[in-house]
Amino acid sequence: METGLSSTVASLAPVKLRPVPKLSDVQQRIQAARLGQAVPSLAAAYSQALARWMGDPVLRLAGVPILTDCYRSPERQNELFAQGRSKPGPVVTYKRGGKSKHNLLPARALDVAFLLADGEVSWSGLLLSKFARLMKAADARVHWGGDFPGDFKDRPHFEV
Ligand SMILES: [Zn+2]
Questions:
Q1: Of the four listed, 17, 19, 29, 44, which is most buried by Cβ atoms within 10 Å?
Q2: 156: CA distance to ligand 1 center in Å?
Q3: Which residues contact 74 (CB under 8 A, 6 or more apart)?
Q4: What pLDDT, in 10s, does the model give residues 65-95?
């Protein structure tokens, strides 16, 4: 969303500014629907972290946080579990259908990525670790998948 402040800054600045990545109306509706699937504590932490991110002039230029997944049906979870095992692709989860916090409704987990100015989606570990700091600051009950013990780090993943 374009704020009054940033449009004022843009009109005053003679230099070419990098565009802030912007979600379309449809994308914003999808984001709101996904966030609505999360338990209130997790949704609140995400909303606060997102607001802090977008309030930071450097971070918001790096990319806009987006929810790629929140609630996931047990069937969809089993499809993901098969990936890297009985189906091609990298392993993306260690949880079978019904075992993931994504499979609860309301969901106790959400996955984050970043929309870049060129329309690409990024799962940058650096950006995710910065976002994780904001999530944990918003609510100490939030666990980041990047902190999971063992070799499998699920950096896009946050849960309560
Ligand atoms: Zn996840």
A1: 44
A2: 7
A3: 97, 98, 103
A4: 999 999 999 999 999 999 999 999 999 899 9
In the prediction, which pLDDT does 63 show? Answer: 95
- What is the distance between the alpha carbons of residues 27 and 153, in angstroms, rounded to a whole number? 27
Instruction: Quote the pLDDT of residue 19.
Output: 79
Q: Looking at residue 21, what DSSP letter applies?
A: P
**Domains of the chain from N-terminus onward:** 17-71+106-159 (3.30.1380.10)
If you measure from the C-alpha of residue 96 to the centroid of ligand 1, how many angstroms do you get, rounded to a whole number?
12
State the pTM of this model. 0.85
Report CA(16)–ligand 1 centroid distance (Å). Answer: 37
CA 158–ligand 1 middle distance (angstroms): 6
Which residues in the chain land under pLDDT 70?
1-17
Structure tokens that stand for 136 in this block: 């944990």
What is the identity of the amino acid at 155? R
